[in-house]
Amino acid sequence: MQEHWQTVRSIYEEGIRTGNATFQQSAPEWDEWTSSHLSHSRIIAIVDNEIAGWAALTPVSGRCVYAGVGEVSVYVAEKFRGQKIGNALLQELIKQSELNDIWTLQAGIFPENAGSIKIHEANGFRTVGYREKIGQMNGVWRDTVLMERRSNIVGIK
Q1: Structural contact between residues 73 and 58, judged by C-beta atoms closer than 8 angstroms
Q2: How far apart are CA 21 and CA 35, in angstroms?
């Protein structure tokens, strides 16, 4: 992913500008991004020789009992939205996560991001909670929908 970082970062920044993708207000530099994400399950989507989106996992905890739990990030470039690239990225992320012994995927999604919720539901995620006013963004308290997908391949079956 490092060789594509500038484009990946630009796509991340596009997501940030929507106001409904993340609490982050700016994209980090490569060193910070790579150290905060799992080293496996990093995916880019390419359409017509152009990076259309990316997906990756962050650990939810440094405690060993949570080693098989990852938080999902899926971002699609603005010009490619609505073309099912987010769905394809999420499907591949699920496959790669299971190959790397991840038994639970979770996602915290702003309720306003209906498209993301729909894609997650279509890929086996279920709503496990609603986090009311969990964080502030530009002085406004925001809620998130907590979604989870449990693997049928690794972990408890």
Answers
A1: yes
A2: 21
Eight-class DSSP state of 3: G
- List, in order, residues 6 or more apart from 77 with CB less than 8 Å away: 10, 11, 14, 51, 52, 53
pTM of the model: 0.92
Structure tokens at 49: 């020789």
Pick the closest to residue 144 from 157, 155, 130 (CA basis). Answer: 130
| Percentage of residues of the chain with pLDDT beyond 70 | 99
**Residue 81's closest CA among 123, 119, 27, 124?**
119
Q: Write the pLDDT tens digit of every residue in 12-21.
A: 999 999 888 8
- Tell me what pLDDT residue 106 has: 97
* Contact partners, residue 131, CB within 8 Å, separation at least 6: 108, 143, 144, 145, 146
